[in-house]
Amino acid sequence: MIVNQTFDPIQVWKSWYDMVEKTWGKTIDDWVKTDEYAAWVGQLQKWFFYSQDHYKKTVDQILAENNLPSKDEIARLAQLVIQLEDKVEKLDDRLDDELFPKLHAIHAAVDKLTTAGENLAKTKS
User: Fold this and answer.
1) Using one digit for the tens of pLDDT, what is the confidence trace for 73-123?
2) d(C-alpha 74, C-alpha 58), whole Å
């Protein structure tokens, strides 16, 4: 009787994974709970923040030397544009609410005076 056996790489991988997880899982879990691990992570975090700060300063220096705006400068410019848009909108509202009605009133008064002047000129002639 011949048994049909085929090689299953997934089953081999799963068996290997289970064996490694049993062997190393508890060891790593115990190590993560130690003060040494906390100190090591603290050093990594300190190095990361130092590297990030150094990288930012380097990029800012490169941008400045090449006369290119930084992210902060672009953000500041965007804020100034927003403030300018607000001022223009307020001026537009003020024109609509205050100045245009006054201009219409002046225009109507000038029309009345012009009409009255024309009528007066007609009566004198």
Assistant:
1) 999 999 999 999 999 999 999 988 888 888 999 999 998 888 888 877 777
2) 18
Question: Does 118 lie in the same domain as 80?
Answer: yes
Q: State the total domains in the chain.
A: 2
The 10s digit of each residue's pLDDT in 43-59 is 999 999 999 999 999 99
* 51 belongs to a structural domain: yes
From residue 35, alpha-carbon distances to 26, 31, 38, 49 in Å are: 17, 9, 5, 21
Phi, psi of 86, deg, nearest 5: -60, -45
HSE, CB side, 13 Å, CA atoms: give it for residue 107: 6
Closest Cα to residue 74, out of 60, 62, 88, 86? 60
Domain that holds residue 64: 34-68
Instruction: Please give the single-letter amino acid code of residue 55.
Output: Y
